[in-house]
C-alpha cells in the first residue's frame, strides 16, 4: 500500500463551527445552528480510533464528474471542538463518490468503487491508503463486514459497466479481493424503470452468523448469501406485500432478536412515487425464510431518506422525498419521525431546518445526538447543494416537560474495552443506581452512511448484573453474527436517558468458533 499524510498546506482549519456540546434548550427546538462545511457530506463515517467524523464528496466539493482523475475532496469533523480539516486526496487515484463503505474489525474505513470503479481506499484514522483493486469494477454497490472480519460486496452497475456485478469478498489483512461466483447479483434485481443500471443498486445487506449475509431489499425478493468457498445464494422469501423499495432504509435495531426495520423507498430510483411502507423482519438461522410483519406506515412517504438507530432502540427517520427526483429539493419530506419498537408506532418530530434528500447522510454521534447533513452534489450549479449539517438532539435529553434537562448517567470506567466474542464487560458508573431506577445498557456499532445505505449500524441490548450500586458485569453474546466484530458505542441507559458512549472494540472469534 502507498502511504500519505497530507501536508499542512493541504489542510484548511475552519473555526467557529458548532460543537456537539451545543444542545438546544428544549425538545420543541431540537436542531442545532447550521454547521457550515467545505463540501457536501455525501458520505460520512465515524472514525473509531479518534471519535471524529470522516466526510467526503467527489472530485469537487459540490459537484461530481466521470473520469475525474482519481481525486476526492475529504474533511475531518471534530464534534468535540467543532473544527474541520479539509483536504484533497489524490495519491490513492480514487474518486470515492458513490462507493461501498464498511468499517472493518480494526475500525478502518474501507471504501470500494464508485466513480473510480475498481479502486479500494482505506482510512485508518490518520491517513488514506491505496489498497488492492476489486475484481469487478462497480459503483452504488453495498458492502458489509462479515463475522470473520472480511468484507462482502455485491451489485453496483452505476459504474464499471452494466450487469454481472456478482459478489466478491475482501480480506483487509491480506489486502486481497476474491470472486464469489456462486453469489450472483441477478436474483436481487428490482424491476426499476431504469433497467439493470439501477436495479442492482444499494442492497440492504446484513451480516449474520457463520459468514452469512442477508439481502433484505430493496427488491421485494430476499436472499441469503453464503460466503464460504465459491459462495452460494438461497431464497429467503419476499417482503410481504411491499413494493420494491429502491433508496429506502433498513436497520437492525435489535440484533439479539434478529429484528430489522425496513422503511419506504420507491419502485424505481427516479421519477417514481415513494412509499411510506414499514415492515419488521425477523431472522433466525442462515438460509431459513425471513419472517415478515407489516406494521403501520410512516406518516410521510420517503425515498433518499436516512434512518439512525438511537441508544434506546428507537429509530430516527429523517429527510427524503415523496416523489424522488435527483438533484432537487422538490417533494421534500420535511417532518422527521421517531419509531418506537415497543408500540411499533411513528411519532412526528419538529421540522427539518433544511431539505435532506439525494446525497444526504446521517450518523449517530458518541454523545447520543445525530449528525444530519448534505444533499445535492449536482453535476452543475443548483439550489439543492447543501454544504452544511445540523445536529439533532433526541427527546431523551429532556424530562417529560420537554424543557428540563434529563439527568444523564456517566460511565466512569470500562475495565476491558477490548474483548473477544462471548466475553463479559465490567463497567462502573460515577453515581450509585438506586433501587427505584431502571438501568440498562446498549451497544450500537459505529457506522457509515451514504446514499441511504448504512450496513455498519446495528444495536444490541445488554443486560447488567450488579456487583454493587456502581459496578456492573455485562454478558455478551457468543454469536459474531449478532455482535459483529469492530468498534461499538457502549451506552448506559438510566430511566431511558443515555450516557455518553464509551468505545468498545469487539475482536473476531477464533477460527474454531
Automatic annotation (TrEMBL):
A Pfam match: GO-like_E_set
Domain annotation Glyoxal oxidase N-terminal: ranges: 258-375
CDD domains hit by this protein: E_set_GO_C (cd02851)
Keyword Membrane: no
Highest taxon of source: Eukaryota
Alphabetized UniProt keyword annotations: Signal
Signal peptide start and end residues: 1-19
The name this protein goes by in its record: Uncharacterized protein
Amino acid at each position: 500500500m502507498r502511504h500519505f499524510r497530507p501536508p499542512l498546506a493541504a489542510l484548511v482549519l475552519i473555526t467557529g463551527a458548532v460543537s456537539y456540546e451545543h444542545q438546544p434548550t428544549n425538545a420543541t427546538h431540537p436542531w442545532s445552528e447550521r454547521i457550515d462545511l467545505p463540501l457536501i457530506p455525501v458520505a460520512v463515517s465515524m472514525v473509531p480510533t479518534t471519535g471524529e467524523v470522516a466526510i467526503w464528496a467527489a472530485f469537487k466539493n459540490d459537484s461530481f464528474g466521470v473520469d475525474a482523475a482519481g481525486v476526492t475532496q475529504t474533511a475531518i469533523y471534530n464534534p468535540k471542538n467543532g473544527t474541520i480539516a479539509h483536504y484533497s486526496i489524490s495519491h490513492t487515484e480514487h474518486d470515492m463518490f458513490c462507493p461501498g463503505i464498511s468499517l472493518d474489525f480494526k475500525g478502518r474505513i474501507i471504501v470500494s468503487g464508485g466513480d473510480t470503479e475498481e479502486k479500494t481506499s482505506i482510512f485508518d484514522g490518520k491517513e488514506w491508503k491505496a489498497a488492492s483493486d476489486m475484481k469487478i469494477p462497480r459503483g452504488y454497490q453495498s458492502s458489509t463486514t462479515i463475522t470473520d472480519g472480511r468484507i462482502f460486496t455485491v451489485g453496483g452497475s452505476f459504474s464499471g459497466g452494466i450487469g454481472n456485478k456478482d459478489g466478491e469478498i475482501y480480506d483487509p489483512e491480506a489486502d486481497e479481493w476474491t470472486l464469489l461466483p456462486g453469489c450472483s447479483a441477478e436474483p436481487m434485481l428490482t424491476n426499476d424503470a431504469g433497467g439493470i443500471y439501477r436495479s442492482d443498486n444499494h442492497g440492504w445487506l446484513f451480516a449474520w452468523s457463520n459468514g452469512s449475509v442477508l439481502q433484505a431489499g430493496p427488491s421485494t425478493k430476499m436472499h441469503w448469501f453464503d460466503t464460504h468457498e465459491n459462495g452460494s445464494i438461497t431464497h429467503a422469501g419476499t417482503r410481504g406485500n411491499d413494493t420494491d423499495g429502491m433508496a429506502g432504509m433498513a436497520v437492525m435495531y435489535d440484533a439479539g432478536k434478529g429484528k430489522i426495520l425496513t422503511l419506504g423507498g420507491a419502485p424505481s430510483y427516479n421519477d417514481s412515487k415513494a412509499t411510506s411502507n414499514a415492515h419488521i423482519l425477523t431472522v433466525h438461522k442462515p438460509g431459513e425464510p425471513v419472517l415478515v410483519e407489516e406494521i403501520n406506515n410512516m406518516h410521510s412517504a420517503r425515498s433518499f431518506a436516512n434512518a439512525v438507530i438511537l441508544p434506546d432502540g428507537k429509530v430516527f427517520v429523517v429527510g427524503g422525498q415523496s416523489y424522488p427526483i435527483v438533484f432537487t429539493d422538490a417533494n421534500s419530506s420535511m417532518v422527521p419521525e421517531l419509531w418506537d419498537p415497543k408500540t411499533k408506532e411513528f411519532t412526528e418530530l419538529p421540522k427539518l431546518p433544511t431539505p435532506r434528500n439525494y446525497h444526504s447522510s446521517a450518523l449517530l454521534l458518541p454523545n447520543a445526538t445525530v449528525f444530519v447533513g448534505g444533499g445535492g452534489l449536482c453535476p452543475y450549479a443548483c439550489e439543492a447543494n447543501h454544504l452544511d449539517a445540523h445536529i439533532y438532539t433526541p427527546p431523551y435529553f429532556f424530562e417529560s416537560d420537554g424543557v428540563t434537562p434529563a439527568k444523564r448517567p456517566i460511565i466512569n470506567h470500562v475495565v476491558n474495552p477490548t474483548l473477544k466474542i462471548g466475553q463479559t464487560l465490567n463497567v462502573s458508573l460515577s453515581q450509585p443506581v438506586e433501587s427505584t431506577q431502571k438501568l440498562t445498557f446498549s451497544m450500537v456499532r459505529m457506522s457509515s452512511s451514504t446514499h441511504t445505505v448504512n450496513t455498519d449500524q446495528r444495536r444490541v441490548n445488554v443486560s447488567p448484573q450488579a456487583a454493587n450500586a456502581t459496578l456492573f458485569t455485562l454478558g455478551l453474546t457468543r454469536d459474531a453474527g449478532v455482535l459483529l466484530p469492530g468498534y461499538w458505542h457502549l451506552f448506559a441507559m438510566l430511566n431511558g436517558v443515555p450516557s455518553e458512549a464509551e468505545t468498545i472494540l469487539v475482536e473476531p472469534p477464533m477460527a474454531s468458533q
